[in-house]
Amino acid sequence: MVTKYRQLADRFAFAHELQSARSERHLLRLTQAEIERTTGYRHAWLYLLTPDRESFELIEVVSEAEASVNRHAAILPVAGDRMLQEIAAGKEPVVVLDARTDPRTDQEIVKNIGCITLINIPIRLPDYPLGGLGTGTFLGEGVRPPTSEALLTLVDIADQVAIALARIRNQAQALAATREQERLLTQLAELKRQESLGTLAAGLLQEMNQLIDMGLGCLAVVHEEGLSQRQQLDLSNLQRILDRMASVTRPLARFGQRYPAEQLDVNLNERIQEILMVVQRLTGLEVELDTQLQPDLPLVLGDVAMLDQVLLNLVLAARACLPGGGQLHIRTGSAGGRVFLQIGYSGLACKAPSELGSELDLTLCRHILRRHEGSLEHEASSQGNCFLMQLPARS
């Protein structure tokens, strides 16, 4: 009875120890140490069935023979191998006392890796054979059959390994999915930036054409009449027109430039003013713009192009919520080591972002701000609605 309780205590202790395993390699090292402590076998390996169930793939091995096992037994086809077929069935432990003489083994692999006694315990998640946990002896250790007690111990260990392995693999899949989501969102943010650039360019094209026509008209008059006093005035007008054209195109060109993906000191006041120079021409006379920017606003650390994309998306989203016109209030400030930008909007026919299909744009904004340790909230009240963006101040 004492022995049984001791065994149960050992199993609970081993299960608790496996909770610290964060990789398959770490898991097998802990398992090998437990196998050696409880049964005396000094080797451990872990094979899993491939999804097509046609081969066993070596996941990890902890042994002095690790190099030869990795070289000659990394992939083991099930077809034609009686021992592997028994393991794949996953019904009970498969014991080979002497692999050199057992008809179930592949003699070429046995010779290459020098294995003798082989003990393979099925690893399964409920009733599904995933593969096998193995141990045994190699050349120099001789034949060593397992006792019935050792075999039961190995089965208990394999059950604990199956649970830990499932946890590790689920965590790895979740991490891979998160990384893939981050990658896709980053790509989507860049595509959205390019889409926004196209939208802005189309909106500014009409104004550019009007300015160019005015400039060409002034030049035509100068060419026909010579340099009279009136023509001198036309030249001055032309200069102002060309300057106006430059002021229209320069912010758009800067926004279209892809800054290097590096963390730089960013002044949000400057960035929002730059964005507004481009966007305010598209807001229309029916939208009143009010800005209150805190002087000496602390800098933030970030990717300039990415933060520009957030600011542009938020301004355009707020403008889209005012189909019948209204007011846009843009305010910056700082408090408690955070820099904030508030974009408020209000009007008679004010709509919510969810009504306009802006969820994806806001998701991209939140994704970018999370990468900058920032946040984005949307607040709605009887006085109006606003986007509140926060970033840590540069120390």
Q: How would you characterize the overall build of this protein?
A:
With 395 residues, the chain is of the alpha+beta class. It folds into 2 domains: 2-176, Beta-Lactamase, CATH 3.30.450.40; 263-392, Heat Shock Protein 90, CATH 3.30.565. Helices cover 52% and strands 23% of the residues. The longest helix has 78 residues, at 148-225. The chain is elongated, with a radius of gyration of 35 Å.
Task: Describe this structure in a few short sentences.
The protein is of the alpha+beta class and 395 residues long. It is 52% helix and 23% strand.
List the helices and strands and how they pair.
Layout: H1 2-18, H2 24-39, E1 44-49, E2 55-62, H3 66-72, E3 75-77, H4 82-89, E4 94-96, H5 107-113, E5 115-125, E6 128-138, H6 148-225, H7 229-256, E7 264-266, H8 268-283, E8 287-292, E9 300-302, H9 304-320, E10 326-335, E11 338-346, H10 359-371, E12 375-381, E13 384-392
Parallel strand pairs: 8-10
Antiparallel strand pairs: 1-2, 1-6, 2-3, 4-5, 5-6, 7-9, 10-11, 11-13, 12-13
Helix pairs in contact: 1-6, 2-6, 6-7, 6-9, 6-10, 7-8, 8-9, 9-10
Question: What is the name of the CATH topology of the largest domain?
Answer: Beta-Lactamase
| Structural class computed from helices and strand pairing | alpha+beta
Measure the end-to-end span: 65 Å
Helix content: 40-55%
